[in-house]
Amino acid sequence: MRHFLTLFTFMLIATITLAQGTNNDFAFDDEDFKHVFKELGFESYKFPIQQSTSVLYDIIVEEFKDGKLVNSSSTIEGMKDTFKNYGIDATSYFKPSNDSTFFHRFYIHSNDTLLKLMVKSHGASYPYKFGLTDVSTHSSRALFSTKEEIDSLGYLTISEPKNIMFIYANSLDEKDKPLWCPAGLPKEKIIQQFYYVIYITIQEYKNKDS
Which residues neighbour 184 within 8 Å (Cβ) at sequence distance 6 or greater? Predict the structure, then answer.
């Protein structure tokens, strides 16, 4: 991982250096950096969540193909399985030490065959991998309702399961079909409209062992 980050840093510096015209010397802004990262296959999302010490929030990642749910994963349960052999209670990583607003971050890196999703919740990170061999054009977006709530409050409150973002793609058979913008569509419509969808939800954690 460290070697990869070092290589990526050099690539980014090289890209920025080459892109900077000697007679067009304007400072790089957020739009430029978004474009560079997108071209390198990187995307990132972050959501400020209001949390208290008495409640744990879980990240649920659902994978759909051809309108059908093929996999559903709990980030906390995944971490519990990872750490159980070491006698570590993974839920302790998610417990905030004080009532506050914390960022939940999502980092996406993709190429033609593989999509990696790193979930960085409060105090813990957990990776997901998805094969892209049977899909063509893909993209991702946060939900408009989520953005509107953040804009009005400055953070999200999770009183019930909240869909926050999704990744969507056409099939290989539809490689020449435009990847239509899904803005404003409900979850059920998105799952039916696109061949491949990864849907991400934040909800209160319910311990299945209790």
Answer: 144
CA distances from 106 to 119, 134, 135, 164, 188 (A): 5, 23, 21, 11, 22
Q: What pLDDT was estimated at residue 2? A: 47
C-alpha to C-alpha distance for 21 and 24, rounded to whole angstroms = 5
Same domain, 101 and 161: yes
The domain of 10 spans: 1-19+29-40
CB 205 within 8 A of CB 57: yes
Closest CA to 189 of 156, 123, 143: 143
Same domain (yes/no): 94, 133: yes
**36 and 48 assigned to the same domain:** no
Which stretches in the chain have pLDDT values below 50?
1-7, 10
Contact 138, 115 (CB under 8 A): yes
Question: b/e string for 172-187 if b means 16 or more Cβ within 10 A?
Answer: eeeeeeeeeebeebee
Torsion-angle region of 105 (φ positive above 0: left; ψ -120 to 50: alpha; else: beta): beta
Global pTM?
0.83
Tell me the residue type at 4. F
- Name residue 64's beta-bridge partners: 69, 197
